[in-house]
Amino acid sequence: MNLKKYILILVLCSLSGAIIVPSMAQPMLRAPEMYIGVQGGVQASTVLYSPTVSYMNNPFTNGVLLGGDGGLVFRYAGHKVCGLQVELNYMHRGWREHDASTGTYERHLHYLELPFLMHLYFPQQRSVRGFLNLGPQIGFCIADTYSGTPLSAAASKQYQSLNSRFDWGLAAGLGFYVRTQKAGLYQLELRANYSLGSIYGTQPGDYFSRANPLDVSINLGWLWPLNKQVKNPKVKIKN
Asked: For residue 226, what is the domain's CATH number?
């Protein structure tokens, strides 16, 4: 692992600590909130290459691949404004190359992903809440497929097998949810995932200096309470 990756890990740990430590100092709820549920939605993904690959000079315009995602959610909120959220998700990532005369090539990378997120919500005693999810995620590519014909035989570095199927990075989401008395919790979230790991080698002498997946998704979720909810939960201060 090179110095750049050590620095990224240090920054990630520092950000997590900056969120977790002040959050744990918040007043605790009399009855912690625990939910389990499902979520799913649509996803737009690409891979940030350096140097750029043929027919994908701008990955945000002609390099985006549309796919889907979905998974399981567990949420525990024991403090006044924060909690912990753990997920197990399927993610359809990849990228797209297109040329009007040659055709289209799409690379499909199918991941299982495990995010560990700090869940910050506001306001505390309302049935409708806004929330922010932030934290690290790890994943593993379980399938690597493609459609179409490679468009550039001369520069084919991006068509080779993956150097690493393991993925790690940072996830951040913003959304809101509605709590009901009998039908659980419904939520909508916009989330971005940036992989700090590279799918191809980026060591000195390798062709790419960067090959990091990036995706943005919008998801609907339905969660059910695992414990009895307090209608207007009060808080207590720990000594």
From this structure: 2.40.160.20
3-state SS assignment for residue 4: helix
Cross-strand pairs, 111? 91, 141
The CA distance from 99 to 50, in Å, is 20
Query: What residue ranges of the chain have pLDDT lower than 50?
Result: 1, 3, 6-7, 10, 14, 18, 21-25, 230, 232-239
> Which residue, 199, 170, 139, is CA-closest to 9?
170
Q: Identify any residues that bridge with 212 across adjacent strands, giving them in sequence order.
A: 48
Range of the domain at 150: 3-236
In the numeric block, the tokens 């306001």 are attached to 123
**DSSP string over 114-162:** EEEEEEEEESTT-SEEEEEEEEEEEEEEEEEEEES--S-SSS-GGGSPP
Q: What is the number of structural domains in the chain?
A: 1
CA 217 to chain centre: 8
Q: Which residues pair with 127 in a beta bridge?
A: none
